[in-house]
């Protein structure tokens, strides 16, 4: 009798787990059923082992986001020093080596600027403030007439094997520069930063087919065409790189606050596209979960390849979800932050 009760309890517990699991990943659309091939288990196992060995601590950059605060704790968590791959120009702005040459990378310059801004906030260091503004002005020099912050070096993209010609664009670059310009305007109230940011928004929302960085989820399913996505790497089909998309959303959020607070504009483009992007994010997140770890992009779905894992990017995903949840209060974002944190805390 006792054994029978135990068996019944086990069956009931299993039923509860199944129901919870289905409800957790349930979406309104029929395409949301997620299946994890057996081969993914080996990829997940290796990723978890590598994560543990690397001693990554995702909590270092975890914060409730503040538009005008230290961006993801960069002021204490990002250090820049000269290496074989990175040098500094005469104004101490970093240049990265691609091939045999060193180039300005708009994302690297943006993140460097944000680290200096954070150091200034934390220590009141005028030298850090000066370095921040020098880097911001370098970014202004890098912006072209269309509002784009381009990469002027060739880049071989791993999913397609194609080499992007110098001048290629990225939604992440646009988004990170917006986060920089938001803080620059807050600090100085210089109108040139508003002008540059508004131009950056216009280019960001330019569709891929017109040379911009905004795509849709149509390459996952034609019924998803109404969902927008900002591509870190523009490819055909789309690859849907997750960290780049979320960094871009943070930039849109920053500029939406600047627009509301400081610009007398009838329409807040940044706010509108931020809301649309968050709507996309909460629908697409389950596709990145490969059953114990998060994928870097959705190349395993659109290119039918093995999931691409960037071990440190799992921590980046968690931090970005935390930041975005702190400004949207969307429970789906919190659910995935909790789930993906649990994978590495077991």
The overall pLDDT average reads 91
The strand order across the widest sheet is 1-2-3
Shape: globular
Beta percentage is 5-15%
Largest sheet: 3 strands, antiparallel
Number of helices: 12
Helix- and strand-based class?
A: mainly alpha
Characterise this structure.
Helices cover about 55% and strands about 5% of the residues. With about 350 residues, the chain is mainly alpha-helical. A three-stranded antiparallel β-sheet has the order 1-2-3, with helices on one face. A two-stranded antiparallel ribbon has the order 4-5. The protein has a two-stranded antiparallel sheet with strand order 6-7. Helix 6 packs antiparallel against helix 7 and helix 8 packs antiparallel against helix 9. The longest helix has 24 residues. The N terminus is likely disordered.
What's the short version?
With 346 residues, the protein is mainly alpha-helical. It is built from 12 helices and 7 strands.
What topology emerges from the helices and strands here?
Layout: H1 2-25, H2 39-54, H3 74-77, E1 86-88, E2 94-98, E3 101-103, H4 106-123, H5 126-142, E4 155-156, E5 163-164, H6 171-188, H7 191-204, E6 214-216, E7 228-230, H8 242-262, H9 269-288, H10 299-302, H11 311-328, H12 331-345
Antiparallel strand pairs: 1-2, 2-3, 4-5, 6-7
Helix pairs in contact: 4-5, 4-6, 5-6, 6-7, 6-8, 8-9, 8-11, 11-12
């Amino acid at each position: 009798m006792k054994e029978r009760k135990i068996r019944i309890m086990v069956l009931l517990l299993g039923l509860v787990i199944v129901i919870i699991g289905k409800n957790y990943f349930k979406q309104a659309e029929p395409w949301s059923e997620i299946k994890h091939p057996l081969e993914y288990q080996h990829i997940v196992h290796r990723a978890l082992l590598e994560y543990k060995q690397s001693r990554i601590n995702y909590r270092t950059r975890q914060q409730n986001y503040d538009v005008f605060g230290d961006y993801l704790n960069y002021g204490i968590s990002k250090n820049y020093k000269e290496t074989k791959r990175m040098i500094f120009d005469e104004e101490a702005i970093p240049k990265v080596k691609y091939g045999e040459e060193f180039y300005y990378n708009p994302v690297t310059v943006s993140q460097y600027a944000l680290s200096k801004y954070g150091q200034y906030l934390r220590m009141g260091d005028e030298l850090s403030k000066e370095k921040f503004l020098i880097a911001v002005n370098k970014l202004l020099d890098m912006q072209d007439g269309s509002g784009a912050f381009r990469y002027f070096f060739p880049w071989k993209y791993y999913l397609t094997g194609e080499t992007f010609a110098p001048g290629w664009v990225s939604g992440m670059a646009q988004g990170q520069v917006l986060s920089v310009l938001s803080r620059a305007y807050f600090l100085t109230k210089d109108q040139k930063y508003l002008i540059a940011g508004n131009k950056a928004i216009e280019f960001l929302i330019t569709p891929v087919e017109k040379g911009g960085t905004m795509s849709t989820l149509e390459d996952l399913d034609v019924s998803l065409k109404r969902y927008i996505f900002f591509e870190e790497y523009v490819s055909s089909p789309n690859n849907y790189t997750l960290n780049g998309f979320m960094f871009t959303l943070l930039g849109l959020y920053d500029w939406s606050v600047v627009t509301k607070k400081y610009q007398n504009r009838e329409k807040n483009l940044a706010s509108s596209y931020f809301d649309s992007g968050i709507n996309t994010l909460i629908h697409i997140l389950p596709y990145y979960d490969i059953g114990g770890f998060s994928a870097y992009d959705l190349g395993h779905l659109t290119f039918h390849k093995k999931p691409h894992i960037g071990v440190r990017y799992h921590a980046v995903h968690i931090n970005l979800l935390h930041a975005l949840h702190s400004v949207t209060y969307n429970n789906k974002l919190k659910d995935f932050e909790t789930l993906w944190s649990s994978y590495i805390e077991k």
